[in-house]
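explain this chain.
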Amino acid sequence: MKRKIVLLTGASKGIGYATAQAMAKKGYDLILNSRNTSAAVKKLQEFGTKVEGIDGSLGDDDTVSSLITKVKETGQLDALFLNHGGPPVKPFMDVSDSEWETYTNIMLHGPLRLLRGITPMMQKQNSGKVVAITSFTVKNPYQGIILSNSLRAALVNALKTAAIELGSDGILINTVAPGYIATQRILDFNQRYAENENISKEEVDQRTINEIPLKKFGMPEDVAGLASYLLSEENKYITGQNIHVDGGLITAN
């Protein structure tokens, strides 16, 4: 039986790696992308699946072209997982024009260009699953992260539109919005907030936890479980959704 293939970007650590691991356990062959995939490729091969890595940033046109070329050479793609590193913690007035351009390319243009490039193959197959990682802040913007708030919201709406337009081709497209997940990015965020407010990181961590109804950080596997379901053959009727994995945070707010 022909094995299924999933392309995952931003997959060398955190939520991306956890999702790649979940897809490997489901028996999918993996094409990984991140700035450096070597360590992740080696670890994921232990699951007995075929794993290939393509290094580079989604903000780089050459990287996106290489990923599209790889998919065409493979002749098959069953699922696409879109993820990437996040932008810096900066308020609106501190973000330069060059930073807007850089992170628009990484967080919006790159993912959408990649999706457009692989869509004809999914249309030909009359099937395909797409999941992008966004953030709970697309619904409740937080101060100090203007780049993340705005660009992730733009991606959510672009993908909702694509889901409507491509549904008749058998392509299911969803986004997953994590809350406070225990990744290096959240740790770095809280460290930056602590420095800006001249308080300890532990105080910021506790303040964050107090916002969450479940009173704890989520784990990458919590997000990966949902993402891998939406990417797999198990998902037959969910599309055009932005689903929160946030311990009740948005409901509480």
